[in-house]
Amino acid sequence: MTSAPVVPASSDPPSMISARGLRKSFGQRGKKGQGTEFEAVRGIDVDVQRGVAFGFLGPNGAGKSSTMRMICCVSPVSGGDLRIFGLDPATHGPEIRARIGVCPQEDTLDTELNVWENLYVYGRYFGLPRDVVKGRIDELLDFVQLTDKARAKVDDLSGGMKRRLTIARSLINKPEILILDEPTTGLDPQARHVIWDRLFRLKQQGVTLVLTTHYMDEAEQLADRLVVMDKGVIVAEGSPRELIERYSTREVAEIRFGVGQNEAAAPQVSDLADRVEVLPDRLLLYTEDGERALQEVLGRGLRPETTLVRRATLEDVFLRLTGRTLAD
Ligand SMILES: Nc1ncnc2c1ncn2[C@@H]1O[C@H](COP(=O)(O)OP(=O)(O)OP(=O)(O)O)[C@@H](O)[C@H]1O
């Protein structure tokens, strides 16, 4: 006997977060005292479905944090429509905040308190009864692998441990959505992998993750779906794989000539690839077969200082869409 398939209640799951034409502007004072408006988010549409990890990828200043702050109900919407759990942040802020967890870009831990106390104070702030908070702290310290640091001072923790504590703190109210602004910025590779592993487990437990990052590897590792943001607008949306397939070839041959020689060499290789990008320090040849393109470069008597064939990444997508690298 075969068991009945599990049929979802609806083929179209409800959006946890839905934005239509969402805008954020900041007033600025000009030199002569006149007010001007700066638009950090310029009319974006976003739908985040339950249980996914949704990423906002973009360079500094793209408008990611401004978007997150509106979703977290700490910054009012300037225009358009935003719904979290179908609710309007302007009228249902406390209700929404009770159901989300927020892990801000900067650690805002209380250095006067130890690890355990940081979680306790936060739990009490959420109105959880003492016994419930205590049980929850045990679970969370275990989850972020800080049980043996419960009585340690915050200042004695490594950067990765502080991040894990901040994540634990953001989970105290068992949020349905966890919002993470640049979760691993400033951490070393090993600490980043530990964080990714924990976030992956949360996703398996059904928590919807919304994260911003300017690391393309982080977006590729964590995000099921992502939007690429630049200068306040969304320039592309899809899964990491879809975006790479849509906007790049499979492989990239990177060739570096000496300083100042890359641009001059570009016309001599332009017919060897679907597309050639000229960066100050290298040429990128977009092609399905990078090794073959490289052999043809060498066959023409050109002698790059270094060469590399790699698979295309989200960085290539970003470069194609904006003409800039994520680090610019
Ligand atoms: N309170 C504010 N007042 C004025 N301008 C602001 C304010 N907050 C952000 N901005 C501007 O809005 C733009 C978008 O900033 P935002 O922090 O949303 O970008 P981001 O993509 O999150 O970048 P980062 O990775 O640096 O946080 C930037 O030009 C920033 O200077």
From TrEMBL:
Gene Ontology molecular functions: ATP binding
A Pfam family this chain is assigned to: ABC_tran
Superkingdom to which the source organism belongs: Bacteria
Membrane topology, record value: Peripheral membrane protein
Keyword Transport: yes
Gene3D superfamilies attached to this UniProt entry: P-loop containing nucleotide triphosphate hydrolases
PANTHER family: ABC TRANSPORTER ATP-BINDING PROTEIN, ABC TRANSPORTER ATP-BINDING PROTEIN NATA
Organism listed in the record: Nocardioides panacihumi
InterPro entries linked to this entry: AAA+_ATPase, ABC_transporter-like_ATP-bd, ABC_transporter-like_CS, ABC_transporter_ATP-binding, P-loop_NTPase
Broad class of the protein's primary localization: membrane
Similarity comment: Belongs to the ABC transporter superfamily.
Domain ABC transporter: 17-256
Keywords per UniProt: Antibiotic resistance, ATP-binding, Nucleotide-binding, Transport
Entry annotated with the keyword ATP-binding: yes
Protein name (record): ATP-binding cassette domain-containing protein
Location(s), subcellular: Cell membrane
